Amino acid sequence: MILADFHTHSTLDDGKSTLEEMAAAARALGLTHFGFSGHSWCPWEADYCIAQEKIPGYLAETRAIAQQYAGQMEVFTGLELDFYGERPEGLDYVIGSVHGLLSGGVLYAVDSSPEASRRAVEEAFGGDWYRYTDAYFDLVAQLPEKTGCDWIGHFDLVSKFNQQDPQFDEESPRYLKRALEVMEHLAKQGVCFEVNTGAITRGYRTVPYPTLTLLRSLREFGGEIILNSDAHHVSHLCGQFPEAEEMIKAAGFTHGNIWTRAGFQAVDLA
């Protein structure tokens, strides 16, 4: 199993465990590399983001924890930077993510609830779910330029509730056309993609983001991957990693990546 996890949240944003608790749990699991990635401050999504006035404290506390574990576990200060978020100075890495679509001055979250997604489609996209998914992927395509991210977080987050509340066909050409166009566009730029198990551990999905179909295409495009849990509690760290690694191998990948002080480092899959 890959002994690293870089997409984690804490009580400073919408997580359930403190920064210290998350780091201690990571060390107890034997991780060699670990990163904090709280939700960036964003005026549209303040309810689950790190408050703007708490960002300096977040940076300072995560740096102190990195010193505490020096020589035992490499600890990084990262941020999950939303498309509409604000990037502070002093980060080790950035995960670029889209959590909502702005239409008519209203931000419609894509990952808050099935009801909110249905309302977004009806109010902003004329009841057309594929216009909704296309609009989401259109923003994902812009993440590197907009955020300067080091990798893309949960590429197909727009499908979060689609297993529990099916509204569109994730295997249909209509859905895959824009998703694959964007994936190929980003992969050809050398952008890395996250394989994210967070929706499994929280009971929304039975498979990681991206799906196996998308992962197979990513492999054909020559893309790179990094495995993360999107943990919001200590019990979620490295959640479903063995199963995710099997899916990654089934997609044709022979290695993943971890983040280091020198950037990405390839790790062979057993």
Report on this model:
By secondary structure, this protein is α/β, with parallel strands linked by helices. It has a single domain (4-268), classed as TIM Barrel. Helix content is 34%, strand content 20%. It is built from nine helices and eleven strands. It has helices spanning 19-28, 55-68, 114-124, 129-141, 143-147, 173-188, 198-201, 212-220, 241-250; strands at residues 4-5, 33-39, 74-82, 93-97, 100-103, 106-109, 151-152, 192-196, 224-228, 255-260, 263-268. α4 (129-141) runs parallel beside α6 (173-188). The chain starts with a strand and ends with a strand. The model has no long low-confidence stretch (mean pLDDT 97).
Short description:
The protein is an alpha/beta fold. The chain contains nine helices and eleven strands. The radius of gyration is 17 Å and the shape is globular.
Instruction: Give the termini separation.
Output: 8 Å
Low-confidence stretches: none
Percent of residues in helices: 25-40%
Specify Rg, calculated over alpha carbons.
17 Å
What fold name goes in the CATH topology slot?
TIM Barrel
* Strand order of the biggest β-sheet: 1-2-3-4-7-8-9
Furnish the topology, listing elements before pairings.
Layout: E1 4-5, H1 19-28, E2 33-39, H2 55-68, E3 74-82, E4 93-97, E5 100-103, E6 106-109, H3 114-124, H4 129-141, H5 143-147, E7 151-152, H6 173-188, E8 192-196, H7 198-201, H8 212-220, E9 224-228, H9 241-250, E10 255-260, E11 263-268
Parallel strand pairs: 1-2, 2-3, 3-4, 4-7, 7-8, 8-9
Antiparallel strand pairs: 5-6, 10-11
